[in-house]
Design goal:
The protein has 226 residues and is an alpha/beta fold. The protein has helices spanning 2-19, 27-37, 40-47, 52-56, 58-64, 84-91, 104-116, 154-164, 193-202; strands at 72-76, 96-101, 122-126, 139-145, 165-176, 205-211, 217-224. The chain has a single domain (55-224), classed as Vaccinia Virus protein VP39 (Rossmann fold), CATH 3.40.50.150. Helix content is 40%, strand content 22%. Strands 3-2-1-4-5-7-6 form a 7-stranded mixed sheet, with helices on both faces. Strand 1 (72-76), helix 6 (84-91) and strand 2 form a beta-alpha-beta unit. The longest helix has 18 residues, at 2-19. The radius of gyration is 17 Å and the shape is globular. The structure holds S-adenosylmethionine. Residues 47, 76-79, 82-83, 100-103, 106, 127, 129, 145-147, 150-151 line the site of S-adenosylmethionine.
Length: 226
């Protein structure tokens, strides 16, 4: 039953496209409808679903990124802080994690979570859809999980991210592959690995490494080219 409900939530954008004759509708309206039709509690349950651990492997993902004490990490589209809290434990008090989101409810949730879990190095940022609101040269690692597809003007967004990433810093993108998977949004809303790599490399990054530990998603690590 729980599984069916989760699938229904994830299928909503497809249903909206089809039911309302919105074939030409932008992804933006599908996404904003999706978020406005689901209560914050529903989204929180979805992101924090314990079953997600099995295929999202958050600990393994974070361990593979070898974040050090003192590092500054930005989690773009942080949601409930599912990954941000793990990064905050790695960076320690001398580091900083920016949990960036455009959803006021998620930002508020992360603020309260940081307080509850005593993570003074976790800062929630209410950003704009076209601006992560990060200072220049402020981060060692920018992490984007299940959010790249929501960013509309990715060329200018990636340019802003590049400015925010330090010279030897990294940009990590985890997104659903264009495969039939029991988890994830409808395939037509996903962005392929090939397009992602081409967009990110065009923005001045180089694909340094790829991990293959996730069954439904690609896991790409880029570094700044200059
Ligand atoms: C599917 S959730 C992923 C949450 C989290 N990364 C995770 O893996 O649990 C996508 C999140 O991205 C946020 N989002 C969508 N567009 C965004 C944008 N342009 N900038 C920042 N956050 C955005 C949404 O509000 C939502 O919280």
């Amino acid at each position: 039953m729980k599984k069916i409900k989760r699938m229904a939530i994830l299928m909503l954008p497809t249903v909206m496209f089809m039911c309302h004759g919105m074939a030409e509708a932008t992804l933006k309206s599908a996404v904003s409808n999706f978020y406005s039709r689901n209560s914050p509690d529903t989204l929180i349950r979805l992101y924090e679903d314990p079953g997600r651990q099995e295929w999202q492997k958050p600990m393994q993902v974070v361990d593979l990124l070898s974040v050090k004490p003192g590092d500054a990490v930005a989690d773009i589209g942080a949601g409930t802080g599912y990954f941000s809290v793990l990064f905050a434990k790695k960076t320690g008090d001398s580091g900083m994690v920016y949990a960036v989101d455009i959803d006021r409810n998620m930002v508020e949730y992360v603020k309260q979570r940081a307080e509850r879990e005593g993570l003074s190095n976790l800062r929630a940022i209410l950003a704009k859809a076209d601006d992560p609101m990060l200072a220049e040269d402020s981060t060692d690692l920018v992490f984007i999980c299940n959010t790249y597809m929501f960013i509309e003007d990715r060329e200018s967004y990636l340019a802003r991210l590049k400015d925010a990433i330090k010279k030897n810093g990294r940009l990590v993108i985890i997104s659903y592959n264009l495969i039939d998977s029991p988890e994830g949004p409808p395939i037509h809303t996903r962005i392929s690995k090939k397009i992602t790599v081409s967009e990110v490399e065009k923005a001045g990054f180089v694909l340094e490494k790829e991990h293959f530990i996730l069954p439904y998603q690609h896991f790409l690590i880029f570094t700044r080219r200059d």
